[in-house]
């Protein structure tokens, strides 16, 4: 089996879907790796390391796409990559199709077997390939928010930890899952006042037990959201309904109620965002102001820390990649129910219920 690793093309992307260590695992199992020249450079991995691990380095993305049985990527294929996708190819990557109707159509048109990292399931129903990137985005959201609150950047000038004798900043986190819990950890560590809201009482109970009264946990409902967000210096959107478009939990009216120079970091932007006034931004221009509130909505936040992200991502993908190389893709899908849950497109159709519902496609 040939695993193809193209260089990521999304603006500001620094991650790579294969480290030299994963490459060595694949080649030791009898797989072949075709890697686009310099694909790992932004994450600190040079071609010589891949060569030593058994990869063949090729000069262009088209050479990778043309010959690979399985394309291993980080981000979903972008428009400029559509023409490279081969009929019937397998693509294993983050797809986020609920927020990408054009890509969904393209994958169906090319009969791509699209296996989305974000819907692969663990035996406990968790999402092991979403987890490391969510943890990174959650942790980053606080350092990004803290930075954007700085006066020189148009922020309100609030220091999240405050100092003795002053009120610390108030961080409100909506969603207490992987990204939300890690945002809470960073915010609490900085000494901020932290409120976290979720619909799942078990998640709130776990955080309440962990932080023993140092943070406030609240049921997510419109009244609590209105009350807390109006007082937030930094709002973190971290909700997820698996594979579906993110629900809007913060209305424009609630955004208007925030203090000038407050900051919103909507991590859930890759699923459309959970704040009514949010729209995707990029690493080139990560923020905009609306109603005097700074909005940050970069869909590939982990690219800010390419090395940690590449290591975190590949340690999660490695067992699945190894399984595909050892057994072949179809047998791996037949034998591993969790991996099979990753299949979003097959034979020209969307086959993941929540995605087809979100897109209004027939499944
Ligand atoms: N922007 C980025 O770079 C980036 C990086 C990684 C992950 N993400 C995205 O972040 C989002 C969150 O991912 P996660 O891994 O933390 O998900 P998760 O499943 O671990 O957690 C989501 C939480 O949202 C809660 N939730 C659902 N509806 C809610 C509501 N109405 N109010 C409050 N809580 C609600 C769920 O109960 C759950 O606890 C996803 O969209 C994911 O794709 C974005």
If you had to describe this structure to a student in words, what would you say it looks like?
α5 runs parallel beside α6. The model has no long low-confidence stretch (mean pLDDT 96). The chain is globular. The longest helix is centred in the last third of the chain and has 22 residues. Helix content is 35%, strand content 17%. An eight-stranded mixed β-sheet has the order 3-2-1-4-5-6-14-15, sandwiched between helices. Strands 9-8-7-10-11-13-12 form a seven-stranded mixed β-sheet, with helices on both faces. It has two domains: 172 residues, NAD(P)-binding Rossmann-like Domain (Rossmann fold); 169 residues, Rossmann fold (3-Layer(aba) Sandwich). The chain is of the alpha/beta class and 363 residues long. It contains 13 helices and 15 strands. Nicotinamide-adenine-dinucleotide binds next to α5, α6 and β8.
